[in-house]
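Bug report (template v2)

What were you trying to do?
Predict the complex of my protein with calcium ion.

What happened?
Run completed; filing so the output is reviewed.

Input:
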Amino acid sequence: MTKNEIADVLNEIGVLLELKGENPFKIRAYQSGARTLESLEDDELDQLIAEEKLGGVKGIGKALVEKITELHTTGRLEFFEKLQASIEPGLVEMLDIPGLGAKKVRALNSMLGVTDIVSLTKACAENLVAELDGFGPKSQEKIVMGIKNREAYGKRHMWWKAHEAAKPILQGLRKLSQVERAEFAGSLRRGMETIGDLDFLVAAEEFAPVVDWFVKQEGIKEVTAQGETKASVRFASGLQADLRIVPADQFVFALHHFTGSKDHNVAMRQRALSRGLSLSEWGLVPAEGEGTAKEKAEDKSQRTPADSEADLFKALGLNFIPPELREGLGEIEAAEAGKLPKLVELSDLRGAFHNHTTASDGRSTLSEMTQAAEVLGWDYLGIADHSKSSFQANGLSEERLLKQIETIHTQNKEKRFKTHVFAGVECDILTDGALDYEDELLAKLDYVVVSVHNAMTQDEATMTKRIIRAIENPHTTMLGHLTGRILLRRESYKIDATKVIDAAIANRVIIELNASPWRLDMDWRHWRKSAEKGLMCCINPDAHETEGLKHVAAGINSARKGWLNKESVLNTLDLGSVLNWLAARK
Ligand code: DGT
Ligand code: CA
Ligand code: CA
Ligand code: ZN
C-alpha cells in the first residue's frame, strides 16, 4: 500500500473508534499519524520501514508502527477488519448525511437508540432530535433535508466513478470472441457530469454468450432484466447498467440512438423526416412506403449503409457531431453550417494551475506532485495551496507561503524536474470580498486563484458583490470553483453567474473549470456563451494528491460539452506563452 492508502485506513480507524466512543487521545493518535504519513514521500516510507526506523518519526507511536508496517507489507490489517466487523453498518451509513460526524452519530445512537437511517428518519418525524442536547430544531431540519437529498442524489453517480466501473466491462466485452464492436452509449459517452445508468452497446455474431458473460460481472447484486438481445443489472454500489446487442449492420444506428440525448435524437429524427427519411435505432430508411421502420431497415435495398456515425451524419448533410455536443442545444444547426468548434482535447493540455500539496491540505509533497506532472508530460504545474483563513485546510501563514515560494524557485533553478513549477496560492475571498493576504505578498506570486470557502449562505446580491470585488483586485489571475457546488452532495451558493462572468471578462480574469469530478464548476452549460463573449478558461484538477492530476480528463469532458476550443483554455499554451500571458496581465 502507498502512504496515502495507509493514511486513508488510519483516518477510517479514527472515525470508527469515535463511533465506538473510544478515548479521544487514541483517536487523535490515528489522525495525526495519518497526517504525518502524508507528509512523507513514498520511497521515504519504504526506507523507514526497511530500516525499522519508523518509530523515530515524530507523531508515530509503537502501536502505529506495527499497523503501518502490516498495511505496507501485506495490504491488510487484521485490527481494522475486526473493528469494521464490530460496528453496525447502519451507523457507518449515517456518516453519509451532511453535517453528521462520528461524534453526532454516536450521540444519536446512545441517547435515542438510532441505529440506521430508517430509525433516524423516524426519530426526526417524532421531533426527538430537535429536543436532544447538542442538536435542536435547526439541525433536525438539516438532517431531514440531508436524508431527502441522499435519496434523490442516490439515483445518480459521478461520471468519474461510473467510468471507472465501466472501463473494465467494455474491455471485457471487446475481448469476447463473438463481439465485433462494443462502445459506451448514453450519458457516459456524452461525458455528462453525473450518470443515471451505464449503457453498453455491442455488435455480435451470436448474442447469448454475450448476455451470459455480462450478467456474471463481479459486484452484480441483481439481474433486473435478461432477454435475448439485452440485459440490465444492478451492482452492489447502486450503479445500474444496460446492455444491448445488435447485428453489425445496425450498430451505427443503434449507437447513435442509445447515445442520445433524447433532445438530440428528436431533432435528428425531424431532420431526417424533412428529407423524406426515417431515422431510428434500426436504420435510416425512406419515410414513405409499406412496412415499419424496423422492417424496412432489415431490407438491405432500402436502408442507407453506414460504417461509422460520420456516415450517418453525412447522409443527413451534417458534419460529425462529437457525442459531448449531442444535447439538442444547436449542434445540428452548427453541423449543417460547418460551424462546429474544433473541441479541446486531453492531449492539448500542457499543465494546470490549481493544485495543493502537503503544505496545506494536500496529501502529496511538492516534489511528488512535480514528478507526477513530469510523468504526465506537463511543461508546467501550478501550486496553489490554501491561504491563512482556511485554517481547517491548514492554510499557509505569510511566512509559510514565502518559504514555499522560495522552495519552488530553488527547485526550478536546480532543474530537478523537466516540469516548471509556478508559485501561486488559492487565496480565500473574505466575506466582504477582500483577499486573504496583503498586496505586497500577492505581488510575489506568479499567479493568484481566488475562491470562496466560508460564509457560503450569503444572499445572492452579497455573494455576487463579494466575488466581483475579488475579481477586481489587480492581483487576481483566476476565480476558483465559481459556485462551490459538490455534485450529488451540496448545492451551489447563490450567485448571479452572468454578472460574475461579465466582471471576469472586463478584468481579464480567468474563470477556472474546476475538474475535480465532484465539482466540474463552472458548469458546462455556461461555457459556450461565456467563451463567445471572450471569457478565458483554465482546466484545473484541484488535485490534493498525485492521482488527482488525472482528473483533468473529467474537466475536458465538461469543456467539450461547453463547446470550448483550445484557444479559450489557458493551460493549452506552452510555457513561454503562459509566461507572456501572465506578464501581460501584470
Ligand atoms: P442517464 O442514464 O439518465 O444519465 O441518461 P442517458 O442519456 O444515458 O439515458 P438512458 O440511459 O435512459 O438512455 C440512453 C439513451 O437512449 C438516451 O440518451 C436516448 C436514448 N433513449 C432512451 N429512451 C428514449 C426515448 O424514450 N426517446 C428517445 N428519443 N430516445 C431515448
Ligand atoms: Ca444511461
Ligand atoms: Ca440506460
Ligand atoms: Zn477551493
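What did the reviewer find?
Residues 186, 197, 199, 242 surround calcium ion (ligand 3) (CB under 6 Å). The CA atoms of residues 276 and 287 lie 5 Å apart.
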